[in-house]
Amino acid sequence: MESQILRPGHLTAHQTAEVLGITLEGVRQLVRRRQLKRSSGSPRQPWYAVADVTGLATKQAASKAA
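RESULT FIELD:
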């Protein structure tokens, strides 16, 4: 269950996966590969900065278009 209290400018792992169009395991892989960094939260409920997620989404869209 996700935390109901979320600081502005952050996304949960579920929201991050939805924005990027991937699974939760895909989000974990991005963190392991150091392509995405946890910005807050807890080890079990990490939060990611909106700017980092949108930047990654933009990068992925650009690579698909090329």
